[in-house]
């Protein structure tokens, strides 16, 4: 990813993992925590602006993982839901680069994320220039997702537990999708963790 494309990446990892009962960011898969795996995928692509949004269990997470190369932004209002983390991540990215053209959001609990998933999203966004390009898995559309600057004001208006896919339902919000085959598997419960362990190689 060349610097002139002016894309920031924000990894949203502030949630409290209430259903799991322990930080899912630190669940291990194939010898690495889920958060480390996500940061590694981002690092492979050479983005210039990289933001990591932390909130719940921040100290515990930062003791366990290296966030080198990422600017850590703290979300003190993480309990209010995803919208607050999106806003903090976008504001932190704009503070780094005021002329930002695109912002790519990821979460930390999609263990099968690969750099190719991100490359496809970015390519579609840059060539077709919609307001956003989302990942599609099964019947769901969601993250990772990349937004053009025309969508920034809309992202800043999200509230509570609203994720950025809410924007798809707005009139005149044109968007594209790219298939992320195993994107629907995320880690929310102990059963998910056990299932993940069985997929280790």
TrEMBL record:
Stored InterPro entries: MobA-like_NTP_Trfase (IPR025877), Nucleotide-diphossugar_trans (IPR029044)
Pfam family, one: NTP_transf_3
Gene3D superfamilies documented for this protein: Spore Coat Polysaccharide Biosynthesis Protein SpsA, Chain A
Protein's name in the database: 4-diphosphocytidyl-2C-methyl-D-erythritol synthase
Domain of life of the organism encoding this protein: Bacteria
Segments forming domain MobA-like NTP transferase: 9-169
Record-level Gene Ontology MF annotations: nucleotidyltransferase activity
């Amino acid at each position: 990813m060349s610097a002139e494309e002016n894309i920031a990446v924000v990894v949203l990892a502030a949630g409290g993992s209430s259903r799991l009962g322990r930080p899912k960011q630190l669940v291990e898969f194939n010898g690495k925590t889920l958060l480390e795996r996500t940061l590694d995928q981002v690092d492979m692509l050479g983005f210039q602006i990289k933001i990591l949004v932390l909130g719940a269990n921040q100290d515990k997470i930062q003791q366990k993982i290296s966030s080198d190369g990422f600017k850590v932004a703290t979300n003190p209002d993480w309990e209010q839901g995803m919208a607050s983390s999106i806003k903090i991540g976008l504001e932190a990215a704009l503070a780094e680069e005021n002329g930002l053209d695109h912002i790519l959001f990821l979460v930390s609990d999609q263990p099968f994320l690969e750099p190719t998933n991100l490359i496809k999203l970015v390519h579609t966004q840059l060539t077709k220039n919609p307001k956003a390009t989302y990942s599609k898995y099964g019947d769901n559309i969601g993250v990772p997702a990349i937004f053009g600057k025309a969508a920034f004001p809309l992202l800043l208006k999200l509230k509570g537990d609203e994720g950025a896919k809410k924007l798809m339902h707005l009139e005149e919000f044109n968007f594209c999708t790219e298939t992320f085959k195993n994107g629907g598997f995320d880690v929310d419960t102990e059963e998910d963790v056990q299932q993940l362990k069985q997929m280790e190689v």
